[in-house]
Structure prediction request, 67 residues.
Amino acid sequence: MFQKGIPPNRIVLGGFSQGGAIAYATSLMLNETPLAGVMCLSTWIPRFVRPSSAGEEGRSEGREEGR
Prediction:
């Protein structure tokens, strides 16, 4: 996508289950290239890309804030 001229800050990755794991892994490995967002459902963060702070910021577990 970068070669097609689409700026990274306009790209959102998404996936379900194993596809979500790939989306998470890709977004975490692109830490120098900020993406617009990542949406993953029913997934996990693969161990080989899990930094100590992964998942601490911006993670939603299906609960509304303030409840």
Remarks:
- Strands lie at 12-16, 37-41.
